[in-house]
Amino acid sequence: MKTFKELRLIGPVQRALAEENYETPTPIQAQTIPAALEGRDVLGSAQTGTGKTAAFSLPILNRLGQHPRKARPNRPQVLILAPTRELAIQIEESISTYGRHLKVRRTSVFGGVSQIRQVRTLNRGVHILVATPGRLLDLMNQGHIDLADLDVFVLDEADRMLDMGFLPDLRRIISKLPEKRQSLFFSATLPPKIVELTETLLTDPVKVDVAPKARSVDQIEQRILHVDRSRKQAILQKILGEDDVDRAIVFTKTKRGANMVAEKLMRNGVRATAIHGNKSQSARQRALEAFRKRRVQVLVATDVAARGIDIDGISHVVNYDMPIEPEAYVHRIGRTGRAGAEGIALSFCTSAERRELRAIEQLIGHKVPVCPDHPQSAAGDERPPAGSRPRRGGSRPRRPGQRPQRRRDGEGRSDSPAQGPEGQNRRRRRPRRKGQRRNEGAGQTG
After folding, report:
1. In 129-186, which residue ranges form alpha helices assigned H by DSSP?
2. Whose C-alpha in 63, 119, 271, 426 is 20 to 30 A from the C-alpha of 435?
3. Would you tell me how many other CB atoms lie within 10 Å of the CB of residue 61?
4. pTM above 0.85, yes or no
5. Which fold does the domain 220-377 belong to in CATH?
6. Taken in order 86, 87, 88, 91, is the CA torsion positive or negative?
7. Closest C-alpha among 256, 258, 252, 244 to residue 287
8. How far, in whole angstroms, is CA 350 from its chain's centroid?
9. Residue 304 CB: number of other CB atoms within 10 A?
10. Which part of the chain is CATH 3.40.50.300?
């Protein structure tokens, strides 16, 4: 399949694609769209940034345009499940773009916001519902969503849902689906539990695997910087000040860490903002919009955003903390090098994170080169920075002629034999005289 014009898509969809300057399908689109147009179930495996959203959205819109039906209250005809709010919103926006010339109603439902507006939209009726698993189950249990009229079910980023602990929710949702339906299943990787799930969900699927398992994107230049933990912020500041850094995403392990990194960058003159699970939905959308419109240069994020950000022109990804799960590394660096563009992924690795690095290298099948441009990244054992506090139980080096210092224990006391002229803080007991009581004379002098 060489061009979108060769696909058997209806006129309104073709017109929208032409307006977006879509000419050549990506491999995942070229191999899955024809099968989906025929009504076949599809199992698609591809890396992030390869066009999976259009691979399932275009056949769905084509189907709704060919066989239009009135949207019934609370009974969607298409259900698309996504693991995060950001991804759900972006899928809905893509459907709006591709279906702008069709009378197709769609909405997205997700947690973190009030459900009042979502319920109101569902009551009016929608053809396509994009949802996260938790909010979908909540609304189903309240009677606001009935899947009896469902024709197409899409599960996007299935492995990410597994990582986020959604497998029990997925099984409950799948149990409510009508038996007669079309199912489209997309995942970047296919671990055993996902394969088991596909066997219960799909019927004689067309299997498409457009990339070797767990390989990172070839266009991305990957580098490791071996650093002290205390030097991470300073090195990050230096990297972000380089001329070739256009827009960057910095990934941290924790929400608190994301806030701290962003705040320190802003104090040093870098336009940065943080996005993570503790932010409200409106705050997360404002942060993404500011990053998309280049009002900020750096987005500091936790893994919640690893697959929910689809923004072109991200020149650098920096793993401030190494991910615990090696698969998350592939999804993080996939935020750059999108749509065939080149990108750079830099990862900070301390001595405590080398186990994570080895797991990543085993997963992607090769060693990540050490960055040659930063002397701080020289491999080897870390040494504490000058002036840092020694480890507990250690001692500071003595200057020539300096008497050894005794360890302090408590307030104003030490382990020395006596303190003060009277010696009342002595640690060692005086031997008792014969017949003297144990506490006799305690605290007395002389």
Report:
1. 133-141, 158-163, 167-175
2. 426
3. 27
4. no
5. Rossmann fold (3.40.50)
6. positive
7. 258
8. 21
9. 21
10. 4-209, 220-377
Q: In what order do the strands lie in the sheet with 106-109?
A: 106-109, 128-131, 78-81, 152-155, 182-187, 42-45, 206-209
Look up the CATH number of domain 4-209.
Answer: 3.40.50.300
**Rounded (5°) CA angle 330-334-339:** 145
Q: Tokens at residue 320, please?
A: 């401030």
Q: How many residues does the chain have?
A: 446
Q: In tens digits, what is the pLDDT along the chain, a chain of 446 residues? A: 578 988 889 999 999 999 998 989 989 999 999 999 999 999 998 766 678 899 999 999 999 999 999 999 999 999 999 998 888 998 999 999 999 999 999 999 999 889 999 999 999 999 999 999 999 999 999 999 999 999 999 999 888 888 778 889 999 999 999 999 999 999 877 878 888 889 989 999 999 988 554 444 566 899 999 999 999 999 999 999 998 898 999 999 998 999 999 999 999 999 999 988 788 777 888 888 899 889 999 999 988 655 566 777 889 999 999 998 887 888 888 888 765 567 899 999 999 999 999 988 888 888 999 987 665 544 443 444 444 444 444 444 445 555 544 444 333 333 333 344 334 444 445 555 555 555 444 444 33
